[in-house]
Amino acid sequence: RVQLMESGGGSAQAGGSLKLSCAVSEFGNYACVGWFRQVPGNDREGVATMHSPSGAIQYGDSVKGRFTISRDYAKKTLDLHMNDLKLEDTAMYYCAFAGTRFACPLEFRLYNDWGQGTQVTVSS
User: Fold this and answer.
1) Pairing between strand 118-123 and 4-7?
2) How far are the Cα atoms of 4, 30, 58, 102 from residue 36, in angstroms, in the given order?
3) What angle do CA 80, 34, 27 make, to 5 degrees?
4) What span, in angstroms and rounded, lies between the C-alpha atoms of 87 and 102?
5) Are 10 and 25 in contact (CB under 8 A)?
6) Around Cβ 41, how many Cβ atoms within 10 Å?
7) How far is it, in rounded angstroms, from Cα 56 to Cα 12?
8) Contact criterion met (CB below 8 Å) for 46 and 94
9) pLDDT digit string (tens) for 3-60?
10) Which of 1, 31, 89, 97 has its Cα between 20 and 30 A from that of 69?
11) Has residue 68 got a pLDDT over 90?
12) Beta bridge partner(s), residue 19
């Protein structure tokens, strides 16, 4: 199993920025890593995903133009830069891994390994 551990969550004001990081034990080949978020009572929502080795990225509609996903192979980290935060970005954020894939959909059910999550709270 791939091990993942998130860090960097916390509180921010609307319009502000936060950066989340995920330590990943391996990125794999023809595999996906991504960020998802969840609020109580809802399914996990796909935020951003990235494919190895192509680097192809997908963003959820609600974060396009505000969030950026990036990875560092040497440091084995997956980052999520969140700008122009909105109240509705408040959620628990998880990083996840899915192996043996040629594309990386935003569907959480396709991902096998998950971190423990980090809370992001946006206030007005």
Assistant:
1) unpaired
2) 13, 20, 12, 19
3) 105
4) 34
5) no
6) 5
7) 29
8) no
9) 999 999 999 999 999 999 999 999 988 999 999 999 999 999 999 999 998 999 999 9
10) 1
11) yes
12) 81
What tokens appear for 28 in the block? 């794999």
Place of tokens 């059910």: 109
* Close Cβ partners of 23 (under 8 Å, ≥ 6 residues apart): 3, 4, 5, 7, 76, 77
Alpha-carbon gap, residue 42 to 52, rounded angstroms = 29
Taking alpha carbons only, the member of 36, 33, 58 closest to residue 47 is 36
Helix, coil or strand: residue 3: coil
pLDDT at 100: 82
- pLDDT on residue 101: 84
Q: CB neighbours of 85 closer than 8 A, spacing ≥ 6?
A: 12, 13, 14, 15, 16, 17, 18, 66, 120, 122
Which of 61, 67, 62, 101 lies closest to 82 in space, CA to CA? 67
Q: What is the pLDDT of residues 73-82, one digit of tens each?
A: 999 999 999 9
